[in-house]
């Protein structure tokens, strides 16, 4: 077997011992990388272990760079990989550190920090290792257009009630502008309720009460939609699987007596 | 074709290129209008771009005025349009600015601000361009009477527990009056929880705990209702209605080609 | 017709014009009564209209007293009414004011205030005028035992995590005692989140995160139960109502060909 | 009957009067024990009744110790009990107080407090007395793998948006580090919304708005899953399985007396 085929097996397939080991190591490196990005942002930890994080970041970036190059080398159609979702994620996992060279002196600290934090997107590399629940995905995809209408309704309601609350409460009670009032309305409608802004006038509190009860009714809609679509989805999957001995068609209804594809009796067996 | 018919086609129908262009332009103008109303309310932006917003408001109002007049001219029964939902929305989209002339000197700033903000209702003009999800609307309409009973129950509960909390916590812990206590109960029952008012005494916290757990149970009700009604709705729509011409059996799956009860081909018609 | 029968018709039945008028007047008096109790608790309104509320309370109490006496007189079995739910509610609607005589001088202000607020329970008198949604009530009744287990689980979780949070955060961060910590856990688990108490230590915030995600999963349970029970309930009601011409049995399945009660063919009509 | 058999009957079975009495007494002792742990943590109560709680704790610990020993003696396979869930819970219910002897002088107060609070786990002893709702448990077990994927999605989203918010708002607005920002994102996504940290910049508030609406959509997923699985579960259980001995048709309603397909009496058996 050619070395490229071997490499392909190790990197892209998980059913050989070497392939499994490769995946496990990569998962550990990704997890460590994300952990380091997170801890690096805690001031107290940064002050103490700054140098360690700097070294670790270089090691991890080099590992990901090697992985990226190996993935390109070992695949037949490298461009398809490069422009795929995971290809872009893999590239973004290595770039930030290299880019800091170009910006390190002239540009502001903000750009640097933004670049360093881009590394958090490495978490998307993990999704590769989760078997996608197709059932769930299909239900979500089917619910999407209806949920969009619902989100649109939420936006309409929050624009109108947000403006109303701005008019009633005004800047003196924290509703400093219409965008802020809309932000407050969405905070209330989704039952989050931070409490950073809250109505003070009786009329404002009364309208807030209406928004909350409306939010209650509104929350029922996406739940109902996903719930119903998911139920339909799983029902279709769990359907009786009596198969036709003539054409092999499997998806018949429980009460079916004849194959819906070829009309052959479902009760007959090959031995008849 | 008469010019009025042509106009009608452009304004009321969206399937010709000109009609589509008209709709797209209008959508952009509406969106801009709402954006300007929102930005106008932000003090910092208002201070800088006040004059620009003033001009823009005039341009937009004139555009909407022309649209309103054209809609009346091009339709056969103008009164039906004028008193329809969108007719009133269209009128309200133009009026505010004109009305400011009458109030500008003598009346207070409050009235002016209220009038200016009325323009936010222009957002309702957008609903014209959203294909209504009849399925969703029917489910909501059917759920409404049951949700009303549920809302009534929420009100009863919040009146009684609100009074109870007023008695227990009292004005010294923020529950200044019964209406305010009822407002707090609804904030809690709907799981919004601003935190502007919160129980301080052990008994008050205990009752708050009960309200929260009750709110949990209560939230299940509208969700359950909408969920169930929506499921019924979508089930009825998704039912394939191709019936067998031999035995009359109706409940076939979408993919069925032969009757599941008698094995007769579903594609054959009596005329075959 | 005897005067007691006439009175019974007016008070207990709503299908005659006089009965309807009686109900409408009573509803208005109840609503006014509740409104006055609420407004009376607002300090600013109380200061101004104290005397008016005092008079109004006397008028309303006398109206309810007359109503109570008339209800007892006009019914055949007065004791069944007196000890019924509405009998007790009606009595409690009149008592508070009379009781203030006995406590007015010697007892504390607290008792008086409590008594005055008891009047809010008059709101329960309104439930008489709402047609109970039996469908909803049955679904709730059937869900109750399962929801009880769920509430029990919530209590177990909040006792354990409450104690844990008390240990981690301690009195210095607002978790002053285990009962307070349990209160906080329920506030968090039910996604209310007042923010009066919140974790400050990293470990506390991490456990709070777990509780919130758990709360998310937990909220799904009662919703799922009510949703499912309600769906079952409404499905059974909406069932095909083809009735048997032999025995009158109505609840047959869609696919039924013979009556499930007497075995008579459902396709036969009396004219056969 | 041997004394060990008698003891087994009293301790492990609840259908004899003595067994019932044993269970009731134990339940009371457990409840008192938890109540004491809770009250003991309230400073004001601790100061007054400290000595009483100390004595009570000793009495309760001795009762649980005796119970633990009796359970081991009266069972045939003591090791299976000792390493079972309830065996460990029972042991942990007695240990804390004994362990305080070893730590009382040399170790810190913290360890002692932790040990004392371990007693709250006695609440798990109560689960023994609740008939598990198998229906609910099965639905939850079946939903678990799908809910895990959903929780994973929540974690991915909160890591990315948490980092984004840290970048936008920064330490000066309370988002002191990435872990804290992730904590805030989960607080927001689960609609808890403490308000201890909240966005201040317009961009931060806009992204917060997106997170909240996303959280709305996301909350629908576990609810939909549990709801659907529970419905499937209860449907399968509630299906009447009385079958017709004539034609074999199985799906009859509970009230059916005759087969709906052939009209044969459902009460007749082949032996009639």
Structure in words:
Chains A, B, C, D: It is found in: Membrane. Chains A, B, C, D: The chain crosses the membrane at residues 21-39, 51-70, 82-103, 147-168, 180-200, 206-226. Chains A, B, C, D: It is a multi-pass membrane protein. Chains A, B, C, D: Keywords: Ion channel, Ion transport, Membrane, Potassium, Potassium channel, Potassium transport, Transmembrane, Transmembrane helix, Transport, Voltage-gated channel. Chains A, B, C, D: GO terms for molecular function: voltage-gated potassium channel activity. The structure is a homotetramer of 272-residue chains. Chain A is an all-alpha fold. Chain A starts with a helix and ends in a 34-residue tail after the last helix. The first copy, chain A, is flat, with a radius of gyration of 28 Å. Chain A contains nine helices and no strands. Helices cover 68% and strands 0% of the residues of chain A. In chain A, helix 1 packs across helix 3 (43-74) and helix 5 (85-103) packs antiparallel against helix 6. Chain A has two domains: 3-129, Voltage-gated potassium channels. Chain C (Four Helix Bundle (Hemerythrin (Met), subunit A), Up-down Bundle); 136-235, Helix Hairpins, CATH 1.10.287. Chain A has helices spanning 3-12, 17-40, 43-74, 78-82, 85-103, 109-118, 134-169, 178-189, 202-238. The mean pLDDT of chain A is 78. The interface between A and B is large, with 59 and 66 residues.
- The oligomeric status of these chains comes to homotetramer
Overall 3D form of chain A: flat
Largest interface: A-B, 59 and 66 residues
CATH class of the largest domain in chain A: Mainly Alpha
The CATH topology of the largest domain in chain A: Four Helix Bundle (Hemerythrin (Met), subunit A)
Series of secondary-structure elements of chain A, N-terminal to C-terminal: HHHHHHHHH
C-alpha termini separation of chain A: 50 Å
Helix content percent band of chain A: 55-70%
Please report the number of helical segments of chain A.
9
CATH level-four homologous superfamily name of the largest domain in chain A: Voltage-gated potassium channels. Chain C
Q: In what range is the share of β-strand residues of chain A? A: under 5%
Domains counted in the coordinates of chain A: how many?
Answer: 2
Low-confidence stretches of chain A: none
User: What structural category do the secondary elements of chain A indicate?
Assistant: mainly alpha
Rounded radius of gyration of chain A (Å): 28 Å
Strand count of chain A: 0
Instruction: Give the rounded overall mean pLDDT of chain A.
Output: 78
CATH architecture of the largest domain in chain A: Up-down Bundle
What's the main sheet of chain A like?
none
